[in-house]
Amino acid sequence: MGMFDSIKVRMPLPAEYAAYQHDVFQTKDLYCRMDCYVILADGRLAHRPLQRWIVDYHHGPVCFYRQAHSTLPPELRQGHGMVEFTAWFRRGQCVEILAMNEVVDIGPDDELAWDPWEDA
User: Fold this and answer.
1) What number of other Cβ atoms are within 10 A of residue 25's Cβ?
2) Are the CB atoms for 101 and 16 separated by under 8 Å?
3) DSSP letter at 105?
4) CA–CA distance, 55 with 101 (Å, rounded to integer)
5) What are the sequence ranges of the domains in the chain?
6) Cα(first)–Cα(last) distance of the chain, in Å?
7) Sign of the C-alpha dihedral computed for residues 12, 14, 15 and 20 taken in this order
8) H or E element: which one contains 112?
9) Residue 19 CA to chain centroid, in angstroms?
10) Confidence at residue 8, expressed as pLDDT on a 0 to 100 scale
11) pLDDT at position 50, please?
12) Per-residue DSSP letters for 30-47?
């Protein structure tokens, strides 16, 4: 499994996942030093590398996940019974948290056949 960081979320999660609001999640999108992070209610990201909390000015997505509760309907679970979210940060401020249980249409199959090494 490797190293990861733990993260709690004080910002509201999507309504259908309210039961996870007080849970601890794992992420590999930060520093993977077994640190503790929290997305505060006001959207700031803070972490506690030692004995005090400090604000982290992360920019970009942070995916976090955990095992699904047994009461979560199967259609809301990721593969292997996981729930996964992505928090989008802009200069240290979380602007949105999305549940990652939706299938995304990325286009026709011929786009998937593109070979990035073709011209190399």
Assistant:
1) 22
2) no
3) -
4) 29
5) 5-112
6) 34
7) negative
8) helix 109-112
9) 16
10) 95
11) 72
12) S--SS-EEEE-TTSBEEE
Strand order across the beta sheet in which 60-67 lies: 54-56, 45-48, 36-39, 5-9, 24-27, 60-67, 82-90, 93-99
Residue carrying the six token digits 């249980």: 101
pTM above threshold 0.90: no
Per-residue model confidence (pLDDT) at position 106: 43
What is the token pair recorded at 19? 């039961």
Q: What is the pLDDT of residue 101?
A: 67
- Measuring CA to CA, how many Å separate 113 from each of 10, 76, 104, 108, 117? 42, 30, 17, 10, 12
Query: Which pLDDT tens digit goes with each residue over 27-79?
Result: 999 988 888 999 999 999 998 877 778 888 889 999 999 888 777 777 666 65
Provide the 3-class DSSP secondary structure of residue 21.
coil
Residue closest to 56 by CA, chosen among 82, 70, 35, 83: 35
Q: Which residue has the tokens 């200069």?
A: 91
> Any idea which residue has 């939706």 for tokens?
102
